[in-house]
Amino acid sequence: MTVSEPQSATGVSKYHWPFERKRGCPLDPPPALAEIREAEPVTRVTLWNGEPAWLATRYHDVRALLGDAKRLSSDTSREGFPQSSETAVAQRGGQKNFVRMDPPKHDRHRLMLTADFAVKQVRALKPFMDSMLEQCFADMEASAKPVDLVKKLAQPVPANVIVKILDLPPELSDFFLDRVNRWMSLDSTPEESSAAGADALDYFDRLIEERRDGRGEDLVSRLVRNHLLTGEITRLELQHMLHLLLVGGFDTTANMIALGTLTLLEHPEQLTRIQEDPELVPGAVEELLRYLSVAHHVGFRLAVDEVEVGGRCIHAGDGVVAPIMAANRDPAVFVEPDRFDVRRDARGHLAFGYGVHQCLGQALARVELQAVFSRLFQRFPGLRLAVPVEELRFKNALIYGIEELPVTW
Questions:
Q1: Closest by Cα among 17, 19, 27 to 394
Q2: Which of 181, 208, 264, 365 could pair with 271 as two cysteines, CB 3.0-4.6 Å apart?
Q3: pLDDT tens-digit series, residues 220-246
Q4: Cα-flanking dihedrals φ and ψ of residue 300, to 5°?
């Protein structure tokens, strides 16, 4: 397949989604996105099951589509909703959380959590994060080299934070990690992914029962007391909400820490800048979010009304793919978008989505990432890869990441 191929006379696209990344360029999005953006910014693609969908590749088109919750549905249970693969259908099709709901129900459910993930609330977690980071760094120093940064830092940081927020038993962290990884992996069979999700949901069902008196002050108890017992949310919906918080609070940030570290190691001149001037770290985090766009299998919608975008008319019943990784590398918005620059003003990126479905946990993710990258290279100024970058294994999952990151210093 080349992106210059025209659509067939029947309107069926010869472009097959998802596209592959270029070998040797694991930190860049698939080159087909840039080629299509230049040739035909809104075009038809064929999905894994042979069904057609519309693909948008320009920043403003992607933002417009993600922001149109009235005419574009996020409800994966709707017939014809587009997905990346059969496993992705198994992962998302049965979800009952607000990410897969449309307004006004989405708005009611999201509001139940808004205060807990507000900037002021998550900043109050910083002392806990600092202490936990110190433990992670000490564990790295005490371990034989090379050290796998994924296991020693990238996973423990967000895992410990979300376990604290939900007041879950820390000794179950391996259980959560295993179930999240198997549920998120596109290499899992649909059956394996569904089973992993069911295990987590069963745990949360037992947890809800344990805290059913609603007398605790932890987040789960408050959700039970204020919303489950009042009938505002069903028990199944609460299970799915807690599963969303576990996955969203852990997986995306873990992959950003690992890939962000790799990106900085692969751009030593940029790394030197943040080592010499720590005040650049917040901006560097925004640039990492833009540059990596790890949520590379999100932005799927189903049109429920006619929508015009990029000179194309999308009809009710049409599937839509609006990938944030395409928007965040649009040269019309970001000068030299394939260049990583910690001094760039990248705050307009769409790494957390756009519109009513914009990531609820973005303030928490920023606090975690800023904490890590303000201290990691100060504590380990000689940090470097212990293997050639060509030997690293990247994830085939809903959230892009890396299996292991062996480092030394």
A1: 27
A2: 264
A3: 999 999 999 999 999 999 999 999 998
A4: -95, 140
